[in-house]
Amino acid sequence: YEFLISRALSGKPQVGDDIPKGSSTENPKCFGPGSDIVDDHPKILVQTIHDTHLLVLNKFTIFRPQLLLLTVDSYRRQTEPLTFEELRAAWAVLTGIGKKYYVLFNCTPVAGASRMHKHMQVIPHPVTVNGVEDGFQFFPDLESSTQATAVPFKNFIERCRGLSGETSKRDQQIFEMYLRLLAQTRAALSIPPEDPVCPHNVVLTQDWMILIPRRSKVFHGITANAAGMMGSVWLMKQSEFEEWKARGPANVLAALGVPVTDSDQR
After folding, report:
1. Strand boundaries in the chain, DSSP class E
2. What is the pLDDT of residue 264?
3. φ, ψ for residue 137, nearest 5 deg
4. What's the rounded Cα separation, in Å, for the pair 226 and 114?
5. Which of 116, 165, 147, 108 is nearest to 16 (CA)?
6. What is the pLDDT of residue 43?
7. What is the pLDDT of residue 134?
8. Sign of CA dihedral 66, 59, 111, 153
9. What are the residues whose beta carbons fall under 8 Å from the beta carbon of 258, sequence distance 6 or more?
10. What pLDDT score does 147 carry?
11. What is the pTM of this model?
């Protein structure tokens, strides 16, 4: 595990909070009429991706740069599963950014979403941050199968192997990968296919995609988003770290997700 404390997170609005006005008394400008994400700096927009997404700077950061990938359609919601267009945009960013990054998606507030305008986060990979291979790593990157299978919650993963060299075919393969993993996630939560809402986390790298079913947002006052479920826990203050230590990280993550049982490990 790694625990990262940032004061920047203390000002981060949560679902249900009013949109921050900053120093102005006027209603803040957002990324469209349905958006709850503030567009308050002339250089916040980095790039438009495929005319469907906006790549923007994230103000509430653990790492720099840390980016958001927003839907151009500001009425798309964080409770919706990912679409073909969203995964296509995510892959374009991952393969075009120049360094090793990962994309995460927190589907529903239960899974850690703090804003409802649909978005993914683009974050430096632990290898990029640490500059070494022997620092903190995500468990799908570990060579030891024992370490990788000691995860206390159910998760579903596929490797990005054998992807087509043709862009349209590759993008469809990545979307179909997500749909297969989402079906397993729904089954783990006993959510029928016709139910549009399925709380889950997604982490996508150029090497693998993982989905994590979520059954709870908070455990004894502490929470985790997709990065936290992968072992990179973002905190606002030292007291949260002390609570994580007291409860035990594995116990917290199992409670936030779906615990692995003895029969799952056979």
Report:
1. 2-5, 45-49, 53-57, 67-71, 101-107, 119-124, 156-159, 200-204, 208-213, 218-219, 222-223, 232-235
2. 67
3. -135, 150
4. 12
5. 116
6. 84
7. 61
8. positive
9. 153, 154, 188, 189, 213, 215
10. 53
11. 0.90
Asked whether the CA dihedral 226, 66, 164, 87 is positive or negative, the reply is positive
Q: What number of other Cβ atoms are within 10 A of residue 193's Cβ?
A: 10
154 CB burial (10 A radius; 0-12, 13-18, 19+): buried
Give residue 89's identity as a one-letter amino acid code: A
Burial of 161 (0-12, 13-18, 19+ CB in 10 A): exposed
Instruction: For residue 236, count CB atoms less than 10 angstroms from its CB and return exposed for 0-12, middle for 13-18, buried for 19 or more.
Output: middle
pLDDT at 188: 97
What pLDDT does residue 136 have? 84
Per-residue CA distances from 43 to 31, 39, 73, 177, 239 (Å): 13, 9, 20, 35, 35
Q: With contact defined as beta carbons under 8 Å apart, do 212 and 91 qualify? A: no
Comparing CA positions, the residue from 215, 216, 180, 217 lying closest to residue 87 is: 180
Q: How far apart are CA 91 and CA 171, in angstroms?
A: 8
pLDDT of res. 93: 97
Beta-strand relationship, 208-213 and 101-107 = unpaired
Backbone region of residue 189 per phi and psi (left: phi > 0; alpha: psi in -120 to 50; beta: other values): alpha
Helices (H) and strands (E) in the chain, counts: 8, 12
Give the chain's length: 266
Between CA 258 and CA 210 the distance in angstroms is 14
How far is Cα 258 from Cα 253, in angstroms, rounded to an integer?
Answer: 9
Q: What is the mean pLDDT of each run of 10 residues along the chain (266 residues)?
A: 81 60 64 90 89 92 87 97 98 93 97 94 85 77 64 96 91 97 97 94 97 96 95 92 95 96 64
